[in-house]
Amino acid sequence: MKGARIIAWVVIAIMGVNMANVAINSGMDHGVGFDTFLAGSGDPWQLFINNDLVTGLLFMVGWLIFREQGGRLADRIAWVWMIMWWGNIVVAAYVLLALWQAGGDDRRFFLGRRITQLPALRISAATRVASGILALLVTLWTLVGIVKVGFAPIATFGFVMGFAPVTLSLLLVAWPARREI
To answer: Does the pLDDT value for residue 140 go beyond 70?
Structure first.
């Protein structure tokens, strides 16, 4: 399990650097990369890479849905949406959460709620308030971005699909599920 933790943190670090590069050198003012994703589909190799990414994420989403069966539906929706839009940085975060919940038990890691109740993260009141405020700020920033691109369909779709799950995730941190264990 230690190896999985190391890999997850390496993925988060690599993807974090890549996200910083995008933010600095390209920005998110044109639809959070959706236009770039679609533009690359004209090249056979880029289409292959895009499809490889999406199908790999679908495998991860399948495991997450299987593992989280019986949990709060809003949490599953947020995780799935975040994974399908933001990719492997979210996969790595979910793996870290699953490893923590498993406490070293392989069966608990892979099967999750199917075999046992899972511990919920303890979230302080300050973190909950900050998450609520951040959800509001992300929503406002998204709306400003949509207006800035003049409601262009692809960019607007990118903004909504890219940042709505961030807002939802922050709201779920602000209003966490009841503690299970």
So the answer is: yes
